[in-house]
Design goal:
Layout: H1 3-8, H2 11-60, E1 68-69, E2 74-75, H3 91-107, H4 117-136, H5 141-165, H6 173-197, H7 202-208, H8 211-223, H9 256-263, H10 276-307, H11 320-339, H12 350-370, H13 376-404, H14 407-417, H15 419-441
Helix pairs in contact: 2-4, 2-5, 2-6, 2-8, 3-5, 3-15, 4-5, 4-7, 4-8, 5-14, 6-11, 6-13, 10-12, 10-13, 10-14, 10-15, 11-13, 12-13
C-alpha cells in the first residue's frame, strides 16, 4: 500500500471498518454456534435414547432374544423375508421425533412474535437440558420417549426462532446458521460415538452433553452483537410498531440494486402490524419455496428411514449395522458441505433440487426391489449426493426467502417457511411404514 495513502487515511473510517468487520464475524460465528447447538442435542438424543432403550430391554429381559442393534435402528430378525428386516420400520422413531416439531412450526408463527426472543432462547435451552436429564435418568421406555419429545420441542422452537432472528442481522448470518446445523449432524454422531466407544456409559455421556445448552446461552447472549432497536425482552417484530423504517439497514446487502429497490417501496408498506389476511397472503407467496423444500425432505427421509435399512450387502466386510451407520454418516457429511456452500454457490431454481432428490428415491426404491446394485460403495456415493441436495435446498430456500420477501413480512415468512422440511419429513415417515412392510413381506 502507498505510504501517503496510509498516512492520509481517515482514522475514523479505518476504525469503523474494523468495528464492522468484527461485528460481522461475531454475528456469523454466533449463528454458526446457534445452528450447531440447536441441532446437536436433537442428533445426540436420538442415538442416546436408542442406547438407553437397549439397556432397559436387557434389564427387563426374562429370556434370550435375537440381538438387535438399536443404536443404528437396524438388526437381524428371524423372519422369512428376503430382506434383513426389523419388525418395525425405523420410520416409527422418525415420527416420534418430528411430530412435536411439526406441531410447533404449524402453530407458533401466528403468535410467537408476542414472546420475546430472550425468553424463547431460555425455553430452548431448558427443554434441551431437560431432554438430556430425562433420558439419562430414565428407567422406562416412556421416559426415554419423553426425553426425545423435549429434544424435538427445543429443536423446532429454536429453528423457527433463530431463522426469524436472522432478519435483524446481515443476511450472511444465514450461511453461518446453515453451516452450523449441517455440522451438528456430523459432530453429534462423531462425539457421541467417540465418548461411548471410550467406555463412558451412555447415561454419563448424556450428562456431559449438558455443555451444549450452556454453549447456546453463551452464543446468544454474549457472542451476538444486537442492534440497538432489537426487542430482547419485550414482544416485537419488524411489523409491530411504526419505527420499522429505522430497522431497514439491519438487513443490508452488498447488492446496490436490491437496496435501491427497497428504498423505492412506499413507506406505508413498512408500517403497522401484520393482519391475519396479510399472513395468509405471505403464506400463499411462500408456497413456491415451501413445496420444493418439502418435496426434497420427503424424498430424502423416505430414503433414509424407509429404504436404507433394506439396502444390505451380505458380501461386504461391513456388517448390516456398520453399513447403516456409514449411510447416515455420509448423508450428514453431504448436508454439512452443501449447507456451508452459500458463500460460494446460490441456487435459485429449487424445483431442480426437489426433482433430483425424487429421482434418487425412485432409483433406490428400484434398487431395493430388484437388487441390481453391485456393492455398498455405489450406495455410499448416492447417499453423499443425497445429502448435498438436501443441504443445498435448505440453505438456499431461506436465503432467497430473506432476499425476496418485503421487510414488513420477512420475520413471519422466515418462521413460517420452516414448516416445509418438517412436513416433508412427517409425510415420509408415514409413507415409509407400508413400503417397509411390503418389502419385508416378500
Amino acid at each position: 500500500m502507498d505510504r501517503s495513502e496510509s498516512v492520509n487515511a481517515d482514522p475514523v473510517m479505518v476504525s469503523n471498518n474494523e468495528v464492522d468487520r468484527c461485528r460481522y464475524w461475531r454475528n456469523w460465528t454466533g449463528f454458526w454456534w446457534l445452528g450447531l447447538c440447536n441441532n446437536f442435542a436433537y442428533v445426540v438424543m436420538l442415538s442416546a435414547a436408542h442406547d438407553i432403550l437397549k439397556q432397559q430391554e436387557k434389564q427387563n429381559a426374562t429370556s434370550p432374544t435375537p440381538p438387535t442393534d438399536l443404536h443404528s435402528g437396524v438388526g437381524n430378525s428371524s423372519n422369512s423375508s428376503r430382506y434383513d428386516c426389523n419388525p418395525i420400520s425405523t420410520a416409527a422413531v422418525l415420527l416420534a421425533d418430528i411430530l412435536p416439531t411439526l406441531f410447533i412450526k404449524l402453530t407458533a408463527p401466528f403468535f410467537i412474535h408476542k414472546v420475546p426472543y430472550g425468553f424463547r432462547v431460555l425455553v430452548c435451552v431448558s427443554t434441551a437440558a431437560t431432554s438430556f436429564l430425562v433420558v439419562s435418568f430414565s428407567s422406562t421406555v416412556w421416559m426415554s420417549i419423553l426425553g426425545v419429545v423435549f429434544a424435538s420441542v427445543s429443536s423446532g422452537l429454536g429453528e423457527l426462532s433463530f431463522l426469524s432472528l436472522s432478519v435483524y442481522f446481515d443476511r450472511d448470518v444465514l450461511a453461518g446458521w446453515g453451516s452450523g446445523t449441517g455440522g451438528a449432524g456430523v459432530a453429534g454422531a462423531l462425539i457421541y460415538s467417540a465418548v461411548t466407544q471410550a467406555g463412558v456409559p451412555p447415561r454419563v455421556t448424556l450428562q456431559i452433553m449438558l455443555v451444549v445448552p450452556a454453549a447456546m446461552v453463551l452464543s446468544y447472549f454474549f457472542l451476538l452483537v444486537f442492534p440497538p432497536v432489537f426487542p430482547q425482552w419485550r414482544p416485537g417484530s419488524l411489523s409491530v410498531d411504526g419505527d420499522s423504517r429505522e430497522r431497514r439497514p439491519l438487513m443490508e446487502d452488498s447488492d446496490d440494486e436490491e437496496q435501491s429497490a427497497e428504498e423505492q417501496l412506499p413507506e406505508d408498506k413498512h408500517i403497522g402490524p401484520l393482519t391475519f389476511g396479510d399472513k395468509l397472503r405471505i403464506i400463499k407467496d411462500l408456497l413456491k419455496f415451501i413445496f420444493p423444500l418439502g418435496m426434497v425432505y420427503f424424498a430424502e427421509y423416505f430414503i433414509n428411514q424407509g429404504l436404507l435399512e433394506l439396502l444390505y450387502f451380505p458380501i461386504s466386510r461391513l456388517s448390516h449395522a456398520e453399513q447403516y451407520r456409514w449411510y447416515q454418516t455420509l448423508y450428514q457429511v453431504g448436508v454439512l458441505v452443501s449447507r456451508s456452500s452459500l458463500c460460494c454457490l446460490k441456487i435459485r431454481k429449487l424445483w431442480v433440487l426437489s426433482l433430483l432428490q425424487c429421482v434418487n428415491a425412485v432409483f433406490l426404491g428400484l434398487a431395493v426391489y430388484y437388487q441390481f446394485l453391485p456393492n455398498v460403495w455405489v450406495v455410499f456415493i448416492i447417499i453423499l449426493y443425497e445429502g448435498l441436495l438436501g443441504g443445498a435446498a435448505y440453505v438456499n430456500t431461506f436465503y432467497f426467502i430473506s432476499k425476496e420477501t418485503d421487510e414488513r413480512g420477512r420475520e413471519f415468512a422466515m418462521a413460517t417457511a420452516s414448516v416445509g422440511d418438517s412436513l416433508g419429513i412427517a409425510l415420509s415417515g408415514a409413507a415409509a411404514f407400508p413400503v417397509h412392510n411390503y418389502f419385508c413381506s416378500l
